[in-house]
Amino acid sequence: MQKTHGKILLVGFGPGAAEHMTLRARAAIEESDVVIGYSTYIKLVKELLDGKEVIRKGMTEEIDRCIEAWEQARQGKTVALISSGDIGVYGMAGPTYEILLQSGWTPESDIQVEIIPGATALNAAASLVGAPLTHDFCAISLSDLLTPWPRIARRLEAAARGDFVVALYNPKSGRRTKQIVEAQRILLQYRNPATPVAVVKSAYRKRQDILRVRLDEMSQCDIGMLSTVLIGNSDSYWQAGLMITPRGYHNKYQDLTGELHAGERAGRSLSLGLEGWPTALKEFLDANPEADLQSAANRFDLPLGALLTALTSRTGDSLESGYQVQSANRTQLSTLLEQYRAGGKLGITLGCHSALSTRISLDGTALQIDAGQLLLDFEESRIQLDLSKVESVWSVSNGKQEQSLHLLDRHENSLLQLSRKLAD
Ligand SMILES: C[S@@+](CC[C@H](N)C(=O)[O-])C[C@H]1O[C@@H](n2cnc3c(N)ncnc32)[C@H](O)[C@@H]1O
């Protein structure tokens, strides 16, 4: 008898092997009247399809698959839309909800929707090569079919800079061959060429193949549409054919079963944890009186604003080097600038690049504020800063009769620093 209310089951059936399909995924396919999927996926679950209406769609017919599921469910049928791995990971769950919501469906509607999770390709690939995902990781798809390349490149750069283990989905196809080369180039800007890389093709399927290589060899490998590429972080290594990403015990213990390092406590945050690292920063500044705040920021690989916040965070610790840091609010900026203008010689430092900084010396009267712009006019030159881009202002005195004003952008990086000598 035909049911009155239909159901859409969004089923992730895992990497491919029957034993890696969850019980709920199997039951969901079994209870369906209609199974819709990309033809390769239909082949992978063929033993579950007896007596069912099966709708095979091609690779580029994703939206058709969602519409078909919606139409079949409206006829009262239970429809399984199937995908390998997890259907919510680069899968059909998103487009299906988008189509349903655009058609006026809500979670309270007669048609029920259930998502059945599955082991995604990165879990499957990782399990075959060791323990590469034991620390922070991210997934990036190299497919630029629906995502602009500059956004993909920005994410690669951020992941590389953030030292994430990276799983690359959709790394290469017959037509998209250059993306993996470009990904390698971006990652190598931050990572050692010897960083371990696993290329796992067709995990838990008949043609499973695994390559263990280095990052500088990655783009030369046999990589295809059915490969997932796992790139280690700066601690990952190959040993006995296994890619291992350490969990971090070495930061606290001499070895896995051994003594604590000096200054560390079991069950507590590291000495360089959130509350401890400002002390390490202060110790660094005390031990290196010649280091300025920007070079300390470069050393800790953090924006200057994070350092300034840390230096104000523990009033209990006094700095031998004598830094006093105060956050000023935007409304105090013009008063502060006026003080610098009236204070004689100014040192001006532009930007925050670790390898290049520009320092110039000018008389305070060169400083003007006009129509929301900070202007420094000298000889035939002008430095101009749009003050609307200044997100925070910090006043710092360094205990050497020098005071500086730091204007930071919204990423906490320095836009401009003004320094002046204080009168004795
Ligand atoms: C459109 S995405 C689908 C991802 C899928 N929903 C999942 O959670 O694994 C397709 C990409 O997933 C990866 N992939 C899917 N199945 C795989 C397998 N069995 N072995 C290795 N990679 C796989 C490949 O990178 C492929 O290009």
Give a quick summary of the entry.
By secondary structure, this protein is of the alpha/beta class.
Question: What does the model show?
Answer:
This protein folds into three domains: 7-119, Tetrapyrrole methylase, N-terminal domain (Cobalt-precorrin-4 Transmethylase, domain 1, 3-Layer(aba) Sandwich), CATH 3.40.1010.10; 122-244, Tetrapyrrole methylase, C-terminal domain (Methyltransferase, Cobalt-precorrin-4 Transmethylase, Domain 2); 277-421, Heme iron utilization protein-like fold. Strand 2, helix 2 (39-44) and strand 3 (53-57) form a beta-alpha-beta unit. The longest helix has 13 residues, at 62-74. The chain is elongated, with a radius of gyration of 29 Å. The protein contains eleven helices and 22 strands. Helix 8 packs across helix 10 (304-313). With 424 residues, the chain is α/β, with parallel strands linked by helices. 25% of the residues lie in helices and 27% in strands. Strands 14-20-21-22-15-16 form a six-stranded antiparallel sheet, with helices on both faces. Strands 3-2-4-1-5 form a five-stranded parallel sheet, sandwiched between helices. It has a five-stranded mixed sheet with strand order 7-8-11-9-10, with helices on both faces. It has helices spanning 23-30, 39-44, 62-74, 93-102, 121-129, 149-161, 179-188, 277-287, 293-300, 304-313, 333-341, and strands at residues 7-12, 34-38, 53-57, 78-83, 112-116, 130-131, 137-141, 165-169, 196-201, 209-214, 227-231, 237-239, 242-244, 324-328, 345-350, 358-363, 367-370, 373-378, 381-386, 392-397, 402-408, 414-421. The structure holds S-adenosylmethionine. S-adenosylmethionine is lined by residues 15-16, 83-86, 89-91, 120-121, 124-125, 169-170, 200, 202-205, 225-228.
